[in-house]
Each structure stands twice: as C-alpha cells, then as structure tokens.
Design brief:
With about 300 residues, the chain is α+β, with helices and mostly antiparallel strands. It folds into two domains: about 1-5 and about 70-220 and about 280-300, no CATH class; about 230-270, no CATH class. Helices cover about 40% and strands about 25% of the residues. The protein has helices spanning about 10-20, 65-75, 85-100, 120-130, 185-190, 200-215, 230-240, 245-255, 255-270, 275-295; strands at about 1-10, 25-30, 40-45, 50-55, 55-65, 105-120, 130-135, 140, 150, 155-160, 175-180, 220. The strands form two sheets. The protein has a ten-stranded antiparallel beta sheet. Strands 7-12 form a two-stranded antiparallel sheet. A hairpin with a 3-residue loop joins strand 9 (about 150) and strand 10 (about 155-160). The protein is elongated and about 75 Å long.
Length: about 300
C-alpha cells in the first residue's frame, strides 16, 4: 500500500547514529556559494533509500514496499502484496537502523496504492479504456518500462500502472491504482498526518477512502463503441462524452447547468448500455484487496534474515 515516501527529520540524531554505527557510508558534497561560503552536505544510501543530511535537517526518500522485499528476500521490487503490518514492521526496522524518531519525522511526499489482479490486460486498459479523471485527460509518462497514466493535480496525482510489464510477469495481469500525495499540507489537512507515528490503521483507512473516491471520478469504459444504440442521440452523447476535447469545450463555454445536464445524460447512457463492468470489477478488487491487507496483527509478523548495510 504505502510505497515511495519522502521524510524530513532531525539532523543530529541521524548523523551521530550513522557515525557511531557505520550503518551506511556517508559522502561529503561541497558547494561554493556566491559569497565563497562552503556548505557541506552528506549523502548516502540505506538499501533503496537516499539519505541526505544538510546543515539543519536529514532527508530520507525511498520505497517502503521495495525496502520490505529487500529486508525479507533481498529483492528490489514492489509488485507483490504489502500489508499494513508489513509496513509497520518495515517502518520500525527503518527507524531503528537510522535512529529516526517517528514523532519528529515529517512525511512530505507519500504514495498509497494497491496491486490487484485483473481479467483484462492492464496495457489495454491504459491504451484504450481509462480515459479521464474528473473529465480531464491524463498526462502519459513513458520514462519507465511499465506504461502508466497519470492525472496531475496541485497537491496529488492519480496513477494507473501496468505492473505486469516492467517485471515481465506473464502468468497474470497486475494493475496498480495509486494516489501520489505531493504536498505535506494535503497529508495534514485531509488525514492529520504530521509525522510518521500518525500513519496508523485509521490513517490507512482514510487514505484508502480518498483513493477510492478519486477512483470513482475516473472515466473507465468497456468499449470505445456504442453497439446498437437506441437512437442517434445516444450515439452522439456517448461519442462526445469519451472525448476530452468535448469536455474541455464544455468547461470553457457552457454554463454549469448545461454541463451538469450533459454529464448526467452521459453517465446514464454508460449505465443503460452496461459500459462500466470493468470499472466495477476493478473497484471490487480494490476493496477486497484492501480488506485482505488490513486483516493482520503487527505482533504476528516479523522480518527475519536480513543484514544491515555496511
């Protein structure tokens, strides 16, 4: 569930602990400013986490999901399940190894999502059937091997991944639906997450509720064609409804009431022609997967057989 996270925390406790234990190697990076003042930052790597220590703070960034797999299996991936208990155990070990005080460690960036199996190829979903979020087109990013769609907002993004592709999984289809929170103000305002100790069961439920609400605003259709429409009006409404440029024009030129009437008409056609079966399947899988990953006891799980990074 919780994946990539950036954390801002105390400088001195982390730095002194690293020096005393040699848990990781730190390297100096010097920069000469316009006033000839030399500032020194220290950088290092803890498993997959980047560690940066500046004059005033420590900054830590990496995937807790990947870290869990590196602890448990010495493998760097995040396509498997990562439960609430897995996260808490991983967080405890992470904080212990780097002397991070949970109550004094502020998350400034956080990804929350779920990997689910689907009956349809995720690549087809991404290429053809996931069309819009809040009736606005996505930003597509192909920097990575696994294709995904990303819908950008000021404080958060919604991401839909083909998780099977980058890890060459051929025996099943894996789709990831993710909420990427880019601002600490969003974490604080909507979830009351001010430090790492706040990320408890209640916050997981709140995060999932927000993810599901945003998933509901995705336009996902079963087909790009309306088969045997009852009338030409239905065909026209459907054709315009799946076109982001049509919505762009509505937002600019139409009144709110006219846009709202068209939206209701379009959504009724989706239901009437049974065009949202795939979306219902994905939503049901998300809900079942979340229930499964929350059904655990932290004390019953323990990470064994890992070694600290020297």
């Amino acid at each position: 569930m919780i994946d990539f996270t950036r954390i801002k925390t105390d400088r001195n406790s982390v730095l002194s602990h690293i020096k005393n234990t040699n848990v990781i190697d730190l390297f100096h990076s010097k920069r000469i400013t316009d006033t000839d003042f030399i500032s020194e930052n220290r950088k290092g790597k803890y498993y997959n986490f980047d560690v940066k220590i500046t004059k005033n703070f420590s900054y830590l960034g990496g995937s807790f999901h990947q870290l869990f797999n590196m602890y448990a299996e010495d493998e760097k991936h995040n396509y498997n399940d990562f439960s609430y208990c897995d996260f808490q155990e991983t967080l405890d070990q992470f904080c212990n190894d780097l002397s991070v005080n949970k109550f004094n460690a502020k998350p400034t960036f956080l990804e929350f999502g779920l990997n689910i199996e689907t009956s349809i190829n995720p690549q087809d979903l991404i290429d053809y059937f996931v069309l819009m979020y809040d009736y606005k087109a996505p930003n597509r990013d192909t920097k990575f091997d696994g294709d995904y769609l990303e819908f950008e907002r000021t404080d958060y993004n919604i991401k839909i991944y083909n998780k099977s592709k980058p890890f060459k999984i051929r025996d099943k289809y894996i789709l990831r639906v993710e909420l990427k929170i880019k601002r600490s103000r969003y974490l604080e305002k909507h979830f009351e997450i001010f430090n790492l100790s706040d990320i408890d069961r209640l916050r997981f439920k709140m995060l999932f509720k927000d993810l599901l609400n945003k998933f509901n605003d995705l336009l996902i259709v079963d087909s790009l064609f309306l088969v045997n429409p009852d009338c030409s009006t239905d065909f026209e409404v459907f054709k315009n409804g799946i076109n982001p440029n049509h919505w762009k024009g509505y937002f600019k030129t139409k009144t709110y009431k006219r846009k709202d009437r068209f939206k209701k008409k379009f959504e009724n056609i989706l239901l009437e022609y049974n065009m949202v079966k795939t979306k219902a399947e994905i939503k049901n899988s998300l809900m079942n997967k979340f229930a499964q990953l929350m059904n655990c006891n932290v004390q019953d799980l323990q990470i064994n057989n890992y070694k600290a990074v020297a």
